[in-house]
């Protein structure tokens, strides 16, 4: 009996020491929040109104403290039964590690504008290093501060005072700590409580966000492995239905995409050249009529008036990694993005391979950075691309973008040089027909371009021209460097078309212009805003320009181009395909006619849009005509969308892991099948 009493006494004393240490940890976590409120938010120009969100975030810091304490309590108590010193060393080591993680995640958020989640593990060390350098935030002083702060933390823990709390008080505090682990809604920030997405993430504890993202990513995927997808032969679409053909090929359907583009074009008498201009970080928030931050692309805006223009187009991901597979091949995401599969990409159809095999098109890709980033080069070679030009073989006579003043890093060649290099290329290589892809670079951290002072001056002039509220103007002024690169791109695009018009091939070329995603460094307003990018199809062969308000995605581009080329007998398209897209919707009024999955980051497929409802990280929203969204209380519809997204993930996993996108009979349309 005495031994049990002694053990209980030791357990109580150990728990008292643990609670005392945990109070210090709570104070340190709150100090990190104070640092963000006073120092970080001002240094990185958080938007007006952020202070109240940061203040509200104290609640979520306390929840993090409670959760961390609950996780550390049991091992601390077990160690304490054998060695009080070992238990203390364990707690101090774990606390220092967690606080360091919290501070590094805060630094990432302050630079990128979005918190870091499980997508961290989808990048190689080389890619992470390149991204960190590109941020321009290589200043050593924040890291010196972190190191000194961590040393101070250790000293505080060593010199700490034990609180003589009553046993019943210890039990109550312990119960609260373990209760914090429950999946209760009020324990996490609710989107409806915040004005925009940035405010939501400013309030969120960054370490808590990262931890939940990692748990969702890996635990949820394990659950998917034990499920099977639901297969339906017919699924309704905007203009009829997809007729699926084989349960073992879950995306394979009859290829009946309607030709919506043909009526806007003169008849295609010869094989047209096709040029994709994919613009880094070109969001609708700051491009095109009614852009809510004002449009900083005046030339592109003028081009929209002569084009087929979809003002409500969505990228399929919140980063560049998915833009090529979605726009050129309309394929599912795979586990971490289609290109991340590398040489293990399943057999698939694409615009490049079909034009190559059916109409003898030559193709090229030009980019100012490294084409191997995100495995873009591997993906393009699978399509049979004829030439890749990147900063490893760009040639002489072209200037890279100025390096960041802090890190000395430059991604590579700026947009004007990319366009100039392409013009020089096609002047020298007159092969026709062509299908070329240009990926720009300038609208990207560290946002440094040639003649930047001129473009900052131009930004201020443009800001005064736009009919914006003073609140919006003041907001924009916080991001003049970012917007200066948008204006730089627009000037480069003006140069591109002025030069291209001089070429004989201009009159027989179709230009497809779109953004890969919206720029996160300018705070994002909603979960849908990150995907909202313009889509412009311009050509001298267009006989009837038009603007459409229907919602479409990058998935829809390739099916529609092939449908038009097939209708004009340029190619004979496959009778079956595994496109995710339904084809472009040319309805002039607002509507969301189809359903699409969206992948905000590598490792995270959390979003699904279906009609005028959007599911974003298990929260359901109404989608409005201006592409704003608002939470709605529709539990049945929310459950329906969760089921649809889950079913897509199951089909995605099966098709990718088992090479079940297309059967052998369709491989004649692929480069490898020739």
From TrEMBL:
**One GO term of the cellular component aspect?**
plasma membrane
Look up keyword Transferase and say if it applies: yes
Q: Which UniProt keywords apply?
A: Cell membrane, Hydrolase, Membrane, Transferase, Transmembrane, Transmembrane helix
Please name the GO terms that the record assigns under molecular function: hydrolase activity; transferase activity
Topological type in the membrane? Multi-pass membrane protein
The cellular location(s) given in this protein's UniProt record come to: Cell membrane
> Where exactly are the transmembrane stretches of this chain?
21-44, 64-82, 89-109, 140-158, 170-187
Entry keyword annotation includes Transferase: yes
Residue ranges annotated for the Sulfatase N-terminal domain, each copy included? 272-566
Q: Which InterPro entries match?
A: Alkaline_phosphatase_core_sf (IPR017850), OpgB/LTA_synthase_biosynth (IPR050448), Sulfatase_N (IPR000917)
| Protein name listed in UniProt | Sulfatase-like hydrolase/transferase
Q: What is the lineage of its organism?
A: Bacteria, Pseudomonadati, Bacteroidota, Bacteroidia, Marinilabiliales
